[in-house]
Amino acid sequence: MSYQALYRVWRPHTLKDIAGQDHITKTLKNALVQQKLSHAYLFTGPRGTGKTSAAKILAKAVNCRHAPAEEPCNECDICRGISDGSIVDVMEIDAASNNGVDEIRDIRDKVRFAPNTAAYKVYIIDEVHMLTTGAFNALLKTLEEPPPHVMFILATTEPHKIPLTIISRCQRFDFKRITSHAMLARMQEIVAADEIAVEEDALSLVARVSQGGMRDALSLLDQAVSFAEGTITKEDILAIIGSVSQEHLYELVEAVHSGSVGEALKMIDEMMQTGKDANRLMEDVIFLLRDILMVKAAPQLEESQDRLHGDDSFRELSEKLEQAWLFQMMEKLNHFQQEMKWATHPQLFLEMFAVQASQQTTALPASGESAPQSSTVEALEQKIVHLERTVQKLQREGVPAASQPQAAEQPVKQEKRSRNTGPSQKSRAVAKQVERMLEHATKPQLQQVKSSWGNVLEQVKKQSMPASAWLNDCQPTAASEEYVVLVFRNEMHRSMIDEKFRELVESSASQQFGAAVTLLTILEADWEKVKENFKKRQKTSPSGEDNEESGEEAPPEEEKNPLIDEAVRLVGEDLLEIKE
Amino acid sequence: MQTWSELSETQPTIARVLQNSVRRGRLAHAYLFEGGRGTGRRAAALLLARAFLCEKTVDAEPCLVCRECRRAESGNHPDVHRIQPDGQTIKVDQIRALKKEFSMRGMESAKKVYIIEETETMSAAAANSLLKFLEEPEGEALAVLITASAGQILPTILSRAQVMSFSPLPPDRVTKALVERGFREKEARTAASLTSDLEEAERMFDEEWISQGREKVVQLMNDLISRPQDAYITVHETIMPFFTDRQQIQTALDLMMIWYRDVLRMQVGQSDAVVYIDQEDTLTKQAFQLSQQKLGKNLQAVMDAKRRAGANVPPQLLVEQLLLRLQEGS
Amino acid sequence: MKFTIQRDVFVQNIQHVSKAISSRATLPILTGIKIVAFDDGITLTGSDSDISIEAFIPAEDGDNSNVDIERPGAVVLQAKYFADIIKKLPESTVELTLNDQMVTKIRSGSSEFNLNGQDPDDFPRLPEVEEGSQFTLKTDLLKALIKQTAFAVSTAETRPILTGIHWGMESEKLMCTATDSHRLAMREAGVEESGDVEFTNVVIPGKSLTELSKILDDSEETVDVTVTDNQVLFKATNLLFLSRLLDGNYPATKNMIPSQSKTNIQVPAKQLMAAIERALLLSDGKNNVVNLKSLNENELEITSVTPEVGKVTESVSCDAFEGEELRISFNGKNIIDALRVIESQDVAIQFTGAMSPFIMRPADRDYMLHLFSPVRTY
Questions:
Q1: In this complex, which chains have at least 3 CB pairs below 8 Å with chain C?
Q2: B165: closest CA of chain A, how far (Å)
Q3: Annotation: CATH topology of B205-327
Q4: Class of the domain covering A6-174
Q5: What is the CATH code for C259-372?
Q6: What pLDDT sits at residue A577?
Q7: What is the count of residue pairs from A and B with beta carbons less than 8 Å apart?
Q8: In sequence order, which residues have a C-beta less than 8 Å from that of residue A44 and are 6 or more positions away?
C-alpha cells in the first residue's frame, strides 16, 4: 500500500542517520574510508536499535559506485538496486526459516560464485542465533576461509546463543539501547520533516515507554497520529498505552505508603472502573518504583536525569519514599505479579497488595510477623502507653477516675463526673461526656477506628479471652482525637469493659491508633438519646443560625451548602438532621 | 460486533485509532491485539480486515454485505488467511506456508490479510521466521496478531507491530448489562466479579448455577463465623457435592475470596462496593471481628488454596485445610 | 439449475479441471468443483488457489449436442465425490438438478445421487479474459519458451520471486527470463499482432508453467494469453488455465549481461556436453566444478578434480577462437542444463575474464541466451 508505517519510511539509509550508536557508526565509517573492512561482522543488541539497517547500509557502502566513502551515495544504480532488492549479489537471509545444515551448505557452495553486478557478494543473516549447531559448524568453515569477494554480516538479539568459535571470527559490534536523549533527537527530526504536531512531553513519554527501541517508539507515534485530533498530547499517549496517568499512580503509591488502605482501594476501584487493566496497572507501579529507586541510587545517570526532568511530583515522591520501603515493595510486587499472571480476576491481587503493603507501615511491631523480641518489646510498649495515659488522665482529672469531682486544669477538655456513683447517675454523666465529645468527633477518625478495630480485638484477645468476648458485643460509633465511644447492647458486657477491662482495652486501642485514647462506654438506648440531644443542640447552635443566610442564596441542595458539609464532615450524616 | 461505533462502546481508544487510520489512509501493515477473553479481539480483527477489503466502505465502516465482507467472515475469502495453533503450538511450517502464499499476488486483488490467533503459542522458530516478513511484507498486506498477553511475545515481534491493548469490561458494566437482561442484581454482581467476559457471565446463569453456588458459599461463610464446628459438615454436604470439577472448585474459592474482599470493603467504609449485597449484616459483623491482618491472612489462604487446586491437590482435602487456616486464631 | 449432459464429455472435462484441485487446500471451498450452467454451455472450474483450470462444454459443438440446458444456475460440489460418481454412472447421459437448498440431484438411468452443494459465490472470483492485455502464441512456441527457461528458476525459498519466470513484452517482442542468481536463461520470441500490449515485471511461478505445458494439447494450434494485475490466463479452445503471479520486484537482469567480451569461442554443442558430462563422472554430486582452459586456437581443455577420487581431463575442439587466453572454472551441471535446451549444432560462448559471468548462445540464432557465474578457484 502506498502508506508505509513511520518506522519503515524513516529507516536510516546512511550511517549518520542511525540514532544512538555513535560508537559503532564512527568505527564503520573509518573502516569504509580506509578500506580496512572485515569479511565477517557480528551485530548484536536489543530490538529496534539499528542492526539490520546498519547491515544494509554497509552492504551498499562497500558496493557503491563511489566507494571508498564513508557513506553509500544511495543514488547510483548499485545503491538503488540493493535498496529495492533487484541486485542479486546482496542477500538477506532469515536464519529462522533457513536454519539447517543444508541451507548453510548451499550458501557455502554458492559463495564460490563471483558476484554478478556488484563488487562484493554480501550475505546478511538476521536472527542468526536460530541456526542449528550443524548449521553453525558449516558456517564456521566458510568464516574461517572467506573468499575475498564475500562479506558476511550476522545480526542477532541473543548473542549468548552464538558459539564462541563464530564470534571469534567476526568483528563484533554491540548495539545499545538508544538513550531517551538520542531517541528524542531523532523523533524531533522526523516530526519536523513530516509536519506532525506533537507536544514535547508527549515525545518524552514515548521515548521513555519505548525502552531504547526506535522502532517501538515510531510505532507508538504512528498510533498517536491516528488517534489524536490535532496536536498530540501526553494524555493521548497515555490513552493509547492504557496507562493510568502518572498523577494517579503517584497518589496510589502515596496512599499505600501512608497506610491509607481505604484511599488506596478506592483509587484502584476507580481505575478499574475506567477500564484500566489490572496487570498493566501492576506493571506501571513496578516501573514507577523502579524509576524512583534508580534516581535515588544513581542520580547522576543520564536516564535518571531524563526521568526527573520536568516532573516535580515525581521528584517529591522520590524524596519522600525510603529506599528500604521501596525494596520491600518491589519484593511484594514481584510476588503478586507472578500470582496475578494466572489469576482470573487480577484486581483482587492488586487490592491484596494494597492492603498488605499499607499494613506494613502502620503495623507496629506488635501486630506484625517477625522479631523474636517483639513480645517483650510489645509488653514494654504497652506498659509505656498505659503509663502515658494514666499521667494524662491524672493531669486532667487530678485524681484516679473513681468518684471525685475535679477542677479542670487544662482549658481544652473539661469532663465533669457525677458525684454519685450510682449507675443511672453514672450513665447520665457518661452521656453528657459523650455529648460533649461529639462536638469534636470527626468521621475520618471514626473511620480509622473502625478499620483498625479488628486489630484491637486481636490484641485484647491475646491477653484476655473473656475481655475480647465482652468486647465483641460493642461497636465504635464516634471518635475524636482523645475519645472513642463504644455502644453496647448488653449492660453486663458494658460494665465489664468499662470497669474491669478498661485499662487493657484502652492500652490496646492506644497502641493501635498511636495515640492515647479514652473509652466512653454507653448502652444502645442511651446512645440514641444522646444522639437526639446532640442534634437538638446543633440546631440552636451558631452553625445552625447561619443556615438562613445560605437559604436565601442557593437552592436547597444539601451537597452544595458548605456549612452543612462541614457539619457532616465532623460528625457524620447519621447525627445530623438537616431542616430547610 | 460489526462496526466501529459498536467497538468504541467497549474499546474506545482502539476503535478511534483504527477507524482514523483507515479513514486517513494511515493503516499500518501489522497490528498486535492483546487482551483477555471476551474483550473483543477477534471481532476487532475481522472488522479491521473487512474495513481493509470492503470496496464500499462508508466513513471507514465496512458494508457487511458485499462478497468481500461476507467471505471474510465465513472463512472463504481467498486473500484472508487465518492461522491457529496446530495442536498446542503454531509451527514453523505454518509460517513457511503463509510466507509462500504471500510470495504471490493476491488471488482477487492486491490486498492480503493474515490473522494469527494465540500468537503466544508460536514456537521460537516460527516466531523468528515471521520477523522479516512481518516487517517488510511484499505488496499490500495487513497482519493482525492476536494474543492474551503481550508479555509472552518476543520483543522483536512486538516492536514490528502496533500494539493495541484491549481493556477488560469494568465490573459495573457487566453487572449493568446482566441486570438489563433480567438477572437479579445480587447474582449479577457476583457473576461480574468472577469474569469480565459478558458471554461467560451469562452462561453462569444457566440452570441457576450461579445463584445456587452463591447461596452455598454464603452458607459456608456464615457457618464459619457463627457455627464453626458445623463448617466441616457444610463442606461435605453442601459444597463438595455442588462444586464438582476442578474449574468449579476454583470458582468456589473465588467466591470465598470475594467474600473476604467484601469484608475488607466494609472495614474501610466502602459498603457500596460489596458484591454480596444481601449479606451486609454478616459482613459488617465480620468486619469488626477480624483484624486487617487476619483478613489479609485469610485472603492469602484462599489464594494459596487456589494455587494448590491448580496443582491437583484433592479438592476436599484442600478445602478442609483452608477451613483450618481460616479458623485459626478466631 | 437443470441440465442433461453427455457423460463421456462430462467426465473428460471434470478430469481436466481436477488437475488443479488439491486435497490440501487452505480454503475449504477449493475442495470443490464449481459448475456454472448458462444458455451456451457448462463451465467447470477447479483451483488450488495458485493455479486454476476452467473447462467449457459448449451446448452444441458442430453437429454434436453435448448439453441440454433447461435452467441456468451454479453450484459447487465436492470434487472427491463428484468425479467418482460421474465416472461410475451407468448411462451415457447424466441429469443434474439443483434445488433451493443447494442440494444437487444427479441422475443417470436408475441411479440417483443427492449431493450437498456449496454457495458458488463463495468460490474465488477469477479474472476474465477481457480484463487484461491480450496476445496470441503458437502452442509449440509456448511450450518451447517454457522448456527453455523453467529449468533455470531457483528452488530455494529465500528469494521467492526467483522461483518464477519473468515475462516482459515490448515492441512486439516477448522475453522470458529465469535465474537462480548464479545462472540465467533467457528466451525471446516475436509476437506479431500483439498490438500495443506492453508489460513488465510479470513473474509466473515456474511450477505453474510446467503444469501448463503438460496440460496443453498439441492439437491446439494457438493459445491466447492475457495478463492481468494478479494473474496470467492461457486460453485454448475450451480450456482456460490461470496462474497467480509472484509479488515483488524481479531483478534487473539486463544489467547482469556483460556487453563486451574478451574471449569468444564456438564449439559443437554435443561434444561439449558429452565432455562435461564425463568430466562430472568423478564429482560427488555436490561439487560440480569444471575447469576450462584454452590450449590453443583449436582446442579447449576441460578438467575436473575430485580430491581423493581422481582427476579427469577432456579435450574439445573449437570451431572458432577469438581473443585472450582463458582459464576459468564453473559449475558444469548448469552448463549441461542449458545445453540440453539449445537445439542448435554449435554454441557460441563469450567470456570476460575468469571472474566475470560468461554467455552461451546458439551459434546460429539470436533468440536464446544463457548466462553463468564462474566459480573462484584458489
A1: A, B
A2: 7
A3: Zinc Finger, Delta Prime; domain 3 (1.20.272)
A4: alpha beta
A5: 3.70.10.10
A6: 65
A7: 196
A8: A51, A155, A156, A157, A159, A172, A173, A174, A175
Query: Which residues in chain C (115-144) have CB-CB distances under 8 A to chain A?
Result: none
Bridge partners (DSSP) of residue C202 are: C167
Cα–Cα dist A77/A70, whole Å: 18
| Chain B residue with Cα closest to A237 | B13
State the Cα–Cα distance between residues A400 and A410, nearest whole angstrom. Answer: 16
Query: Are the CB atoms for C188 and C368 separated by under 8 Å?
Result: yes
Mean model confidence pLDDT for chain B: 86
User: Least CB-CB distance to C158: which of A86, A89, A98?
Assistant: A98
Of the candidates B209, B216, B187, the one whose C-alpha atom is nearest the C-alpha of residue B277 is B187
Query: Which residues in B lie closer than 8 A to residue A348 (C-beta atoms)?
Result: 257-258, 261, 299
Query: In the β-sheet with C111-116, what is the strand arrangement from edge to edge?
Result: C67-71, C2-6, C93-98, C103-108, C111-116
pLDDT of residue A144: 87
The closest of A475, C15, A227, A286 to B281, measured between CA atoms, is A475
Note the CATH number of domain C2-122. Answer: 3.10.150.10
Q: Domain spans of chain C?
A: 2-122, 129-254, 259-372
Q: What's the mean pLDDT in A106-117? A: 83
Instruction: For residue C249, list chain A residues with Cβ-Cβ distance below 8 A.
Output: 84-86
Q: Is A246-362 in CATH node 3.40.50.300?
A: no
Domain boundaries of chain B, sorted by first residue: 4-165, 205-327
Evaluate if residue A416 carries a pLDDT over 60. no
Cα separation, A425 vs A415, in Å, equals 15
CB contact (8 A) between residue C248 and residue B106: no
Decide if B50 contacts B62 (C-beta within 8 A). yes
Burial class (CB in 10 A: 0-12, 13-18, 19+), A105: middle
* One-character DSSP codes across A50-93: SHHHHHHHHHHHHHSTT-SSSS--S-SHHHHHHHTT--TTEEEE
Residue C204 and residue C227: Cα distance in Å, rounded? 10
Q: What are the Cα distances from residue A316, in Å, to A251, A259, A295?
A: 12, 18, 12
C129-254 has which CATH code? 3.10.150.10
Percentage of chain A exceeding pLDDT 70: 79
Highest CATH level, class, for B4-165: alpha beta
CA nearest B109: which of B67, B62, B65, B53? B53
Shortest alpha-carbon distance between residue A164 and chain C (Å):
27
Cell of B185: 442484581
Lookup: cell for C204? 509466473
As assigned by CATH, the class of the A376-400+421-536 domain is alpha beta
Record: contact C249-A85, CB cut-off 8 A:
yes
Q: Are the beta carbons of A227 and B16 separated by less than 8 Å?
A: yes
Residue range B57-66: mean pLDDT, rounded: 87
